[in-house]
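Researcher: We plan to redesign the surface later, but first we want a full-length starting point. Tokens attached.
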């Protein structure tokens, strides 16, 4: 059983998407990031970077004590290797899946995240910052669109952890200033994943967890922390 510490954000959806697609049992513990749950000592023991998602594998392969894992990319790779699912076994397919997993972690996620911040959440609208991150998001969509030309999924003919990582960051495309019609190969891939039953089950968690609109109190919790926040 996997214990998933989760909130319905793109990074949270990565893990529910994997677990539903792989058919692995799990239970969810909500981490209300607007209320500051990510700074609680019990969560920091699992995720020292005070970010969700995180998991605890209660039944690790070595039969030892439960294993906590933080960082969504590390979680996806850990789960894929443990279950033998959603990661190609051939050297070339595995290489491709890992390339695009790290591409999402190092590129699409951070750039789209800054896009979200400056366009939606920042109280002061800074045109240069908005343009900078919207343009970079547009470039990254173009990179993925080109890669998907002639491919069913990111790493080939089967869904992999690369798709689990990238898809949730494309879901809020309208909020990022992107129109999927401008990226036909990406749109075809996106629509195919959206239609999968596992995707629909994964995203159903967003309806089960009650969220409130962001206010100044939540904004103060989410943004502007320093090293003092995690002491």
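Model: Full-length starting sequence:
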């Amino acid at each position: 059983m996997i214990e998933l510490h989760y909130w319905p954000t793109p990074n949270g959806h990565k893990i529910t998407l994997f677990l539903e697609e792989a058919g692995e049992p799990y239970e969810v513990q909500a981490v209300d990031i607007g209320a500051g749950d990510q700074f609680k000592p019990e969560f920091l023991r699992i995720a020292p970077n005070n970010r969700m998602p995180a998991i605890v594998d209660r039944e690790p392969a070595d039969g030892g004590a439960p294993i906590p894992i933080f960082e969504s990319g590390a979680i996806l790779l850990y789960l894929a290797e443990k279950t033998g699912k959603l990661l190609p076994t051939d050297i070339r397919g595995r290489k491709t899946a890992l390339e695009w997993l790290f591409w999402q972690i190092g590129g699409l996620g951070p750039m789209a995240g800054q896009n979200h911040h400056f366009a939606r959440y920042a109280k002061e609208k800074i045109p240069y910052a908005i343009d900078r991150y919207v343009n970079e998001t547009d470039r990254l969509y173009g990179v993925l669109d080109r890669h998907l030309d002639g491919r069913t999924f990111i790493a080939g003919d089967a869904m992999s952890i690369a798709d689990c990582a990238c898809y949730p960051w494309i879901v809020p495309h309208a909020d990022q200033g992107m129109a999927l019609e401008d990226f036909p190969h990406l749109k075809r891939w996106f629509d195919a994943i959206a239609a999968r039953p596992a995707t629909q089950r994964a995203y159903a968690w967003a309806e089960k967890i009650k969220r409130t609109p962001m206010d100044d109190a939540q904004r103060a919790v989410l943004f502007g922390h320093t090293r003092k926040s995690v002491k």
